Amino acid sequence: MTITSDPRTAPEKPAGDTVRSALRTGRTALGVRVGTWAVVAAAGLALPYMVALYPLQVATQGVTQGILALSIGWLLRQTGLLSFGHAAFYGVTGYVVGNLAIHTGLPPLPALLLGILGGTVLSLLFALVIARSTGIAFAMLSLALGMMLWVAAYRSRALTDGLDGMVVELHGDFLGRDVADYAGPVHAWPIVWLVLMATIGGLWLVSRTVFGRRLTAIRENEERVRFSGVSTVLPRIAAITISGFCASLAGAVAVLQKAFVSPDDLFFSASGLALIVAVIGGIGSVWGPPLGAIAFAILQALLAKSGHYQAVLGLSLMAFVLLAPGGGAQVVDRIRTAVTRRRGRSTDA
């Protein structure tokens, strides 16, 4: 005789077991993500030994653009704030480094660190002015402030050399090597790649903290958060400043490679391009904007002679917005989900 148990009378699992099981699952998922990040970070360092010089140069430019795109995409994801002024932090970092190198003769490392500090302080000042705004008002105010800086850079030839641009003459050693060596992609790649990996890891960790979840709550329902007695302006100021710091990192690695900065680096089109590649890559993931920037750099290199890459970029943006609003990251998630389901079905069979 077979005895069957009624699920309605079966003893329930203790709540403690359920909590411990959930914690174990969470730790396992966290370990997988951290392990994947570490493997990718280590594998990326081997790229100079695997590709030719020109593809490496394209990848270096794409990763630099990816850091800027990540700063804009992260701010949009966490707070819902769309910024068209991040190029200001990117470009001002280069100008600070250039002026320090030319007028004070500072070695490369302190000049770059002070340049990053200058871009970050500028982002804080921007945040203090526009953090109370949201939606289209925030986007337009960030655009207006960024364009004011562009006009200032255009007219202040004593500090910026105007439209001619500034040649940043860094002299000395940087991380044990002559700073001039970083003009080539072989030596620049490890620096750019590690900065990207550190930025991805740092922003991902910030998103998982109480502060990151508070930003998400403010994005979803600011009025309810305000009624709970929590400030909504100060967290936004902090988020804009963190995002501006990441954009300043992009400006520092860019000036290290190019040894040149111009008002074009401050123009709103630089922010707009970073936003486009962030959307194509997917702002829902910290990996999305850098992947979108690298894909754009490759596409631009392939279509540079034809001159049609802008049309292809526009069509790609339309396709992603209509078919995969989450960008490339959403496409990857769909593929991964489909593969997982197929494996599950084959196992059940």
TrEMBL record:
It is found in: Cell membrane. Keywords: Cell membrane, Membrane, Transmembrane, Transmembrane helix. Pfam families: BPD_transp_2 (PF02653). Its main location: membrane. One of its GO terms (molecular function) is branched-chain amino acid transmembrane transporter activity. It is a multi-pass membrane protein. This is Branched-chain amino acid ABC transporter permease. It comes from Pseudonocardia sulfidoxydans NBRC 16205.
